[in-house]
Amino acid sequence: MSTPTTRSPYERATATRTTTRAGLAVLTTVLFCAAVHFAEIEFITAALLTGVAGIAVDLRQTEKLARARATP
């Protein structure tokens, strides 16, 4: 029988941030590869927009992580 694990808000925020970073990095890489393979500029635009969105999301999650760390 498995016991439920309780994670602190800091651990949850860190895990979410890592997962989001990895997912957006993979998506950006796939879009750049598609741009090279298909020789289409639209994929480069999508990759750059994904990168910018990823930075914005990461900043928000970093702020959430700092709040979770400051809360006892």
Please sum up the structure shown:
The protein has helices spanning 9-38, 41-70.
The low-confidence runs, each spanning 5 or more residues with pLDDT under 50, are none
Largest sheet: none
Strand content: under 5%
Total helical elements:
2
Taken from the alpha-carbon principal axes, the silhouette is: elongated
Distance between the termini: 31 Å
Describe the protein.
- By secondary structure, the chain is mostly helical.
- The chain is built from 2 helices and no strands.
- The protein has a domain of 44 residues.
- The longest helix is centred in the N-terminal third of the chain and has 30 residues.
- The relative contact order is 0.16.
- The model has no long low-confidence stretch (mean pLDDT 83).
- Keywords: Membrane, Transmembrane, Transmembrane helix.
Topology (SSEs and partners):
Blueprint (H helix, E strand, L loop, with lengths): L8 H30 L2 H30 L2
Keywords: Membrane, Transmembrane, Transmembrane helix
What keyword list fits this structure?
72 residues; 2 helices
